[in-house]
Design brief:
This protein has one domain: Metal Binding Protein, Guanine Nucleotide Exchange Factor, Chain A. Helix content is 5%, strand content 38%. The protein contains one helix and ten strands, in the order E-E-E-H-E-E-E-E-E-E-E. The strands form two sheets. It has a seven-stranded mixed β-sheet with strand order 6-7-8-9-4-3-10. The chain has a three-stranded antiparallel β-sheet with strand order 1-2-5, with no helix packed on it. The radius of gyration is 14 Å and the shape is globular. Keywords: Metal-binding, Zinc. It holds the Pfam family GFA. InterPro entries: CENP-V-like, CENP-V/GFA, Mss4-like_sf. This is Aldehyde-activating protein.
Amino acid sequence: MEMKPVHQASCHCGAVVLELKMPNGLEDPRRCSCSMCRKRGAIAASVLLENLKIVKGEDNLTLYQFNTMTAKHYFCKTCGIYTHHQRRSNPHQFAINVACLEGVNPYELEPVKIYDGIHHPSDQN
């Protein structure tokens, strides 16, 4: 699997296309055990906010928030695929759905570490 410094990602139907600057390749690929991530099952990797550009379909993204309403989860309105979210744990980063990256097979990353989202750092005293 070849990671490029600038990579494209898209939803299943192609209505949403992202351009990602990834000079260090996949950063911190992981799964999360929070209720949302557990149900969607995606492997997420980190990119800085300024390194994600929506090149097509911004109007086709829908936003979902829950609990503290801090994280912003984005999905394609047409096919329902989760493309990315702005992280609660680090609001300066997006987490991107690795399966949406063109030419990347997320199954080649196994095993992937699991982040304890049930015990989120922002919830600790």
